Amino acid sequence: MHTYLQIVLELNIDFVLFQKLFVNTNSMTTISHLAYYCIMLESESEKIRFRVIIFAKKNSRFQFYQRLNICSDTDILVIDINDTLNSNTEVIQLINIYNEKSLSENNNK
């Protein structure tokens, strides 16, 4: 994942969505990168394994706000994004959804 974050940094990408990545369940942490904030859900239960994380570039023109009030599902992470350089733009909502159900035809698992 460090390699991915370094590549997207070089490509000047502001938000990166990951699914099913390593999260240390004892400390509820994952990898870190100097250029990115790690946005993940918080839980009081140590048994929940989060499957969605968003990394947001620290030196970005965009601000983000985590929307915990929209959904309580731990497989969904929602943030609102504002452009700090253009106040006339609408807020963008970015949603990272993990769907463990198979996408294969005729498969309900």
Summarize the structure.
This protein is mainly beta. Helix content is 8%, strand content 31%.
How does this structure look, described?
This protein is mainly beta and 109 residues long. The chain has one domain (2-97). Helices cover 8% and strands 31% of the residues. It contains one helix and six strands; from the N terminus they run αββββββ. It has one helix at 2-10; strands spanning 15-19, 36-39, 52-57, 62-66, 76-83, 92-97.
Give the topology, please.
Elements: H1 2-10, E1 15-19, E2 36-39, E3 52-57, E4 62-66, E5 76-83, E6 92-97
Antiparallel strand pairs: 1-3, 2-3, 4-5, 5-6
Give the strand order, joined by hyphens, for the main sheet. 1-3-2
Number of domains: 1
DSSP strand count: 6
Low-confidence stretches: none
- Report Rg: 15 Å
- How would you name the oligomeric state of the polypeptide chains in this document? single chain
Task: Give the helix proportion (percent range).
Answer: under 10%
Q: How far apart are the first and last residues' alpha carbons, in Å?
A: 28 Å
Mean pLDDT over all positions = 82
| Biggest beta sheet summary | 3 strands, antiparallel
Beta-strand content estimate:
25-35%
Task: Summarize the helix and strand pattern as letters.
Answer: HEEEEEE
- Tally the helices: what do you get? 1
| Computed structural class | mainly beta
Global outline: globular
